[in-house]
Amino acid sequence: MSFCRLFISAIALFTASFSHAHGEFFIHDAYARASAPGAPNSAAFMVLDNQSDVLKRVVSAQTPAAKRVELHEHAMADGMMKMRQIPQILVPSGEQVVLQPGGLHVMLFDLVKPLKVGEQISLTLTTADGHSLTKQIPVKSVMGGMQHHSDEGNHHHQ
User: What is the tens place of the pLDDT at every residue in 102-142?
Assistant: First the structure.
């Protein structure tokens, strides 16, 4: 085998193993909530899918559509459902975590402009190991507001 072919094969093998190690964390069914007229904030929802063999810790999110972005949950506090910021969302190896109204979600504060149905925004999630995953997500109308879901099986965080 020529040096050139050997070199190309080595690069291909390295690239395949790199993408295998870091390319098994996915975002599915993501969308941002259309904002009401004059509303400064919105939220994004999705399914986080960890097909790697290690725990993934989502520690931050960013979008050019908002000046501030935070990871949030709805939790029972003093007998009432309250929304609060959390430092991370844990996605165990081989599992999916659902971010949905009334549960875990990404809050978008101080929107740059109103989010309108049919538009798309870019959303980037960053994990504790420094890797980022960026996806274009649609803006959708979400009816019924934030609801409480009692399915605690999908709420992995610390």
Answer: 999 999 999 999 999 999 999 999 999 999 999 999 999 98
Angstrom distance (rounded) from CA 15 to CA 112: 37
What does the buried/exposed string (b/e) look like for 108-147 if buried means 16 or more CB atoms within 10 Å of the residue's CB? beebeebbeeeeebebebbbeeeeebebebebeebeeebe
Report the C-alpha gap between 130 and 25 in whole angstroms: 13
Element (H, E) at 74: strand 66-77
Q: Is 53 exposed, middle or buried (0-12, 13-18, 19+ CB in 10 A)?
A: exposed
Contacts of 111 (CB under 8 A, 6+ apart): 35, 39, 40, 41, 42, 65, 66, 67
Residue tagged 């709420």 (tokens): 155
Residue 153 CB contacts under 8 Å (≥ 6 apart), including other chains: none
What are the two backbone dihedrals, phi and then psi, of residue 8, each rounded to the nearest 5 degrees?
A: -65, -40
Handedness of CA 69, 72, 77, 81 (dihedral sign): positive
| 55-82 residue pLDDT tens | 999 999 999 999 999 999 988 888 898 9
